[in-house]
Amino acid sequence: METKLQKLKKRLVEINDLESAAALLSWDQSTYMPSGGAAARARQMATLGRLAHEKFTDPAIGKLLDDLRPYEESLPYDSDEASLVRVTRRNYEKAVKVPPSFMAQLTSHSAKTYQVWTEARPANDFAKVQPNLEKTLDLSRQLADFFPGYEHIADPLIDFHDYGMKASTISAIFAELRQQLVPLVQAITAQPTVDNSCLHQNFPEGQQWAFGLEVIKRFGYDFERGREDKTPHPFTTKFSLGDVRITTRVKENDLGEALFGSLHEAGHAMYEQGIRKDFEGTPLAQGTSSGIHESQSRLWENLVGRSRGFWRFFYPQLQAVFPNQLGSVSLETFYRAINKVERSLIRTEADEVTYNLHVMLRFDFELALLEGRLAVRDLPEAWRERFEADLGIVPPDDRDGVLQDVHWYAGIIGGAFQGYTLGNILNAQFFETALSVHPEIPAEIEEGEFGTLHSWLKENIYQHGSKYTATELVERVTGGPMSIEPYIHYLRGKYGELYKL
Ligand code: ZN
Questions:
Q1: DSSP of 356-419, one letter per residue?
Q2: Distance (Å) of CA 52 to CA 18, 22, 56, 58, 62
């Protein structure tokens, strides 16, 4: 049996090599590729993607998985070998259910829709992309139908990002959270507006860049196994466990943009850098779900990076970098500025408190669209109504309304948004657990020391990669199921104090 497992592993590593090569081409496309390379690059990535898919859906893989079943069943559930077979089988069974011709159709439709969206958004012209989006919805439903037996049509699509989560579970958690958040947002926005103009002076790019690098180095992001580059949209990508890269964007008139972007991506990257080396090249060597991944990025960005203790250490250093801009701005003013809560239009720029309302609106619309309760043509109006109800403002146009996020216009409708809010809920739950085991963590953060926290995350979350599902991991780490309590407790504590509620 050992030899069959070796055989399987060898094939998986080869497939991973193809995928990693495609990821490198994609990274290069976003960072340094001259625009003249675009057409050939798209083709090259498609070729590698197709080869990887063909290799993975080869019936020989299915045969190996079948042959390995008795061996897997003879081992404890959480042994590395059983986990590798289990996770590979799960991915394999999913991959073989979708015909390659359908995938090709979806990919080509997505590419076209993305192109139309890049024109429709600046022109504030939803009608231009509406027929494409209708087709996307149709294809999204078809995709779900390759996985019969679901409870809700969104479930198979959610499964691609957050394995094991169901629309019904997420809806229930979101409803509970929304009940708490809407009044909290109302209470906060009834208070005087916070002045965050200190963040909107001129901050030269080079100094911003260097400061961000300094912080993430201290966090424990390993530059021997990573690097940071500039792109219009920040992301994290991995070519191996020894090469996990991040990107960020810099705005000279907005100090938060590059800094918090870097902290966020470093959180994603540290998760991947922390996976056990012997998982390299296998399906176990990646973060286990989008919700867990977001919990790790947001933990470093928000729970650490927007905390008062963190800035007690770093603010004097930041002031030394920008003496003219921040020399006379107090720590308290700065702390309030980076935690300003406001009703705003754009999800990606939203604060910790309102952010989830942006996500829930999208999640609910995805369910309504997939169920057929909402038509694509009615989406802009539905967006305005819901936005006003939840956030108290009406988007003045579709550009900053229904057209703002790329997700639906570059992929399918369903599954891509819930991870952000699951991440917010889970980061608080994980952090609370870490503090109960290591009450010294906040004091260390005030000293610019992150070793205890980083080690705890490595030990409890990072190292396991995809060995455990999100649900299993939450149980193992916190001793209970996912719960919104720690997150609500965190928000009430922090923002209650900030806004004197
Ligand atoms: Zn993220």
A1: HHHHHHHHHHHHHHHHTSS-GGGHHHHHHHHHHHHHS---SSSTTTTTS-SGGGSS-SSSSSHH
A2: 6, 10, 6, 10, 15
- Is residue 466 within 8 Å of residue 287, measured between CB atoms? yes
Say what the pTM is: 0.96
Report the 10 Å Cβ neighbour count for 497: 10
CA dihedral 160, 163, 169, 171 (to 10 degrees): -30
Q: Which two tokens stand for residue 180?
A: 């708490």
Q: What is the mean pLDDT of residues 292-305?
A: 98
**Chain centre to alpha carbon of residue 321:** 31
Sign of CA pseudo-dihedral 449, 451, 454, 456: negative
Paired strand residues for 245? 237
CA of residue 235 to ligand 1 center, whole Å: 7
Find the 257 Cα to ligand 1 centroid distance in Å: 14
Q: Which amino acid is at 466?
A: S
Burial class (CB in 10 A: 0-12, 13-18, 19+), 296: buried
For domain 167-498, the question of CATH label 3.40.50.970 is answered with no
Q: How far apart are CA 371 and CA 413, in angstroms?
A: 11
pLDDT of residue 2: 67
Tokens coding 391 = 């956030």
CB atoms within 10 A of CB 97: 13
pLDDT one-digit tens code per residue, 418-441: 999 999 999 999 999 999 999 999
Q: Which residues are catalytic?
A: 265
Q: First-to-last CA distance in the chain?
A: 63
Confidence of residue 42 (pLDDT cuts 50, 70, 90): confident
What residue spans define the domains of the chain?
Answer: 2-123, 167-498
* Residue 104, CA distances (Å) to 46, 55, 98, 101, 416 in order: 10, 16, 10, 5, 20
CA of 75 to the centre of ligand 1 (A): 35
